[in-house]
Amino acid sequence: MFCEHGFKLDDNGCKICECNVCSKQQCRMFCEHGFKVDEHGCEICECNTCPEVMCTMFCEHGFKLDDNGCEICECNVCSKQQCRMFCEHGFKVDEHGCEICECNTCPEVMCTMFCEHGSKLDDNGCEICECNVCSEQQCRMFCEHGFKVDENGCEICECNTCPEVMCTMFCEHGFKLDDNGCEICECNS
């Protein structure tokens, strides 16, 4: 008999012909890379952390992911699309830079300058080779978690508010912070 999560033990600590059953965990948290498992293979209320990929190769389309969503030292390869359509401005790409069977609505911008607050858009919503300029806001207020930003990435005179972290785990060194300085349900190491 095979038991995915091991066998139950009797009062003497000996295995009996009965399988361990994982109890349904009620973890009020989101784990990007899934939950850790105990010695019986049952999920516990602790997030998997991905080890840093120690890889010296460059992958144009990013690295492949393992079962936990962690990067491994293998390159993603784009499959050859069999699109039977012509796209004046080329095809859209997915999060790995691989072409998908959808047309770009905007032409590719041939611009060599870096725009800290993004590029301006034309009447069709397509980027043009001009930078957005943020006016120097003089907000007479202090925001613990920084200021909100508008659609151009420019700060506005409104404070970021942090949602309350709904996390049932204890973190000895506190929680990690997101880009807005707000706690997220992940422990500092």
From TrEMBL:
GO terms for cellular component: extracellular region; plasma membrane. Signal peptide: none annotated. Keywords: Protease inhibitor, Repeat, Secreted, Serine protease inhibitor, Signal. Its main location: secreted. It is found in: Secreted. Gene3D superfamilies: Antistasin, domain 1 (2.10.22.10). GO terms for molecular function: serine-type endopeptidase inhibitor activity. Residues 1-19, 22-47, 50-75, 78-103, 106-131, 134-159, 162-187 form the Antistasin-like domain. InterPro entries: Antistasin-like, CRIM1, Hirudin/antistatin. Pfam families: Antistasin. Belongs to the protease inhibitor I15 (antistasin) family. This is Antistasin-like domain-containing protein. The lineage of its organism: Eukaryota, Metazoa, Spiralia, Lophotrochozoa, Annelida.
